[in-house]
Each structure stands twice: as structure tokens, then as C-alpha cells.
Amino acid sequence: MESQDTLVPLGGAEFAPTRTYLNTSACGLLPRRAIEAVTLLAEETAAGRPDGAGDFDIVDEARAAFARLAHVTPDRVAVGSSVSVHVGMVAQSLPSGAEVLFPEGDFSSVITPFTVRGDLKTRFVPLERLAESVRPDTALVAFSAVQSADGRTADFAAVRAAAAAHGARTLCDATQSAGWLPLYAGEWDFTVAGGYKYLLCPRGASFLTVTEEAQDALLPIHAGWVTGEELWTNSYGPVRELAHSARRFDEPPAFSSYHGAARSLALLEEIGIERIEAHDKALAARFRTGLAALGHTPVADDSTVVAVPGLGDRADALREAGVLLSARAGNLRASFHLYNSAADVDRVLAVLAG
User: Fold this and answer.
1) Mind listing the pLDDT tens digit for each residue in 138-183?
2) How many other CB atoms are found less than 10 A from the CB of residue 203?
3) Cα 93 → chain centroid
4) Sheet bearing 169-173, strands edge to edge
5) Gap between the Cα atoms of 208 and 67, Å rounded
6) CB-CB neighbours of 350 under 10 Å
7) % of the chain surpassing 70 pLDDT
8) Would you place residue 6 in the very low, low, confident or very high pLDDT band (cuts 50, 70, 90)?
9) CA max distance for the chain
């Protein structure tokens, strides 16, 4: 196992969990700076801010920070409230009869916006067969970069190649990966990422990226005054000109969420995603080694999300012992992030051994 001394938390005084928290796949911990930003906005709003309940410039700070983390330009990023809303826009933009290919058991918010239409062809295959299952009549491949239920990571290169070979568009949900796994959003027609997990943002901040080539195929079905090319000239009557960038797909921002998100994303940039990835994966590897020593077999992957089939019923007992994890699809799911340490890994192993 790695030395406990080398696996210390990143982020310093930004985090102060009172329990052994291994549940970032459900919800990330807020850094101190984000809490302070949200609190300040609430206090200013209560006192009567001159410009209302938030600042569009700070929203754009968050947009630009996410763009840097996703290796795209800010004009390719739209902001919103949730993954299901972003995905719903993609789903409503497809023509009737279009085929959408999914991995079996992927997260509901990636799938349901398509299935509720009733006039699309939806097909489900095992994750490991996703690339080989793309065919000429597939319009879209929609999948999560990392599976919520068990932490398995998709074969990005194979999916990209198969989609390109058959002319299919791609939608990648990075909610369980953005913040610890480098994201190259320009490799996909659409990416979505809920901010409240590994991106450490308050809930209500979510990001959509759209390539320039795919933008014209996407209907801005919830367009409003914030989606105009000139922000402050479209308050009354129809928006005269939609934004030329992906901002045409914005939802009106939940300002408190984005005031916090701008600070959280800045912290991730300061530490560096590559450094976070190495830290998180080392903790997950330490956990997998310890599980094997206890006679348990986790799902095989090098993801920071570690699932142990058949142990989901231990989540309640672990919670009583001060260790927070999740039970998903019968699995005990541990998820490690920058604020975790080797001591956290050893603590959960000790409880499982007892």
C-alpha cells in the first residue's frame, strides 16, 4: 500500500468534515470559500443589492473556469440547473424515429429525457459493448464517462471512433468524472456535468458544452431574455437575436449556486486536475488492495469510484460508525476525492473487518 504520509488531504483548511466522508459520488463537500461566497450574496441580497440577487459577471467567471477545466473556450459552455434539463434539450432536438444508444443501467437523467418522448428508438447494450454496437442508423450515443452504480469507466477512444465511423453524435455525462478525471469536452458533440459532486459546487450549478458543429442542431427550448446576444436589450417581446455562442442554451442562473461555483472551480484549478486524479486514484487503489485482503472483490477499474458487489447492506452500519458511503444497485460504493486521506481508507477497512 501507498504510505499514509503521502496520501494527505488536498485543499488545506478549505474542508473540515466531521465524519469519514467517502460519498462524493452522491454529493461533494463545499469548500470554505464557496460557503463564504454564498453567505455573502445572501447577506447582500437581504440588505438590498443595487443590481438584484446576483452578478452575471460571476456567472461568467464560473463559465470560464469550467471551460478551462474542460479544455474548451467559454463560448462553448452553457450554464443551467441540472443534467436532466441539459439532456432534455438534446432529446427534444432529435427528429422523430431517431435511434439513441445507451449503456445498460446508466443514470436515469441521461436516459429518461429520451424515453419520455415516445417517438424515439432507444437501444441498450452492456457498457463494454457500447462502441461495437453503434450502427449506421444510430443518431446519438449517450453515456456516462463513469458509471454511477459501480464506477466503471467507458472506453472513450473506442466510442469516439465508432460514432465517427457511423456519423452518430455523442453525449457524454461527466458528472461522476469532471473534477478528478481530465475532461476534453471538445471530443464530444455534447457534454453535461452536474456541479455538485466532484466539481464541489453548490447544487443548482450545471454545465453543458456544445461543439460549434453541433450547435445548430440543438433547439434552445427554454430560451429567454438571458439567451440574447445582447443581454440587457431583450427584456420585453421576443428575443431579437439569440447569442451566437453556446450561451443561447443558458438557463437563468441560480445566482447563489454560481457565486459558490466560481470559487469552487477556482480551487480545483489551483490544485490541478492531474494532481487530484493521482491522489484520488491512489486512495481508490489502496481501498481495493485492502478489500482484497479482507476477501472482497470490487468491480475492476482504476476509477476513483469503488463498488463492492453484495455489500450494499453494510452502508447503514458504516454510517452508524461515522463512515458515509452509498449503496447503489446492491453495491457498496465508496468515492474518494481531494479531501480524503489514507486514514479515511484505513478507517472504512477497519469497520468492514470488524
Assistant:
1) 999 999 999 999 999 999 999 999 999 999 999 999 999 999 999 9
2) 17
3) 22
4) 77-80, 206-210, 190-194, 169-173, 138-144, 99-103, 121-125
5) 10
6) 12
7) 98
8) low
9) 67
CA distance 179 to 111: 23
d(Cα 221, Cα 142) in Å, to the nearest integer? 20
Contact between 97 and 137 (Cβ < 8 Å): no
- How far apart are alpha carbons 284 and 265 in whole angstroms? 23
Q: How many degrees, rounded to 5, is the angle at CA 77 between CA 103 and CA 260?
A: 100
Distances (CA, A) of 240 to 232, 234, 345: 12, 7, 56
**pTM listed for this prediction:** 0.95
Report DSSP state, residue 129: G
How does DSSP classify residue 192?
E
Confidence of residue 5 (pLDDT cuts 50, 70, 90): very low
Question: Which residue's C-alpha cell is 481495493?
Answer: 288
Mean pLDDT of 284-289: 98
Phi, psi at residue 101, to the nearest 5°?
-105, 130
Query: Using CA atoms, how far apart are residues 52 and 44, in angstroms rounded to an integer?
Result: 9
N-terminal to C-terminal alpha carbon distance within the chain: 20
Residue ranges with strand state E in 113-245:
121-125, 138-144, 169-173, 190-194, 206-210
Contact 176, 152 (CB under 8 A): no
Helix (H) or strand (E) holding 335: strand 331-335
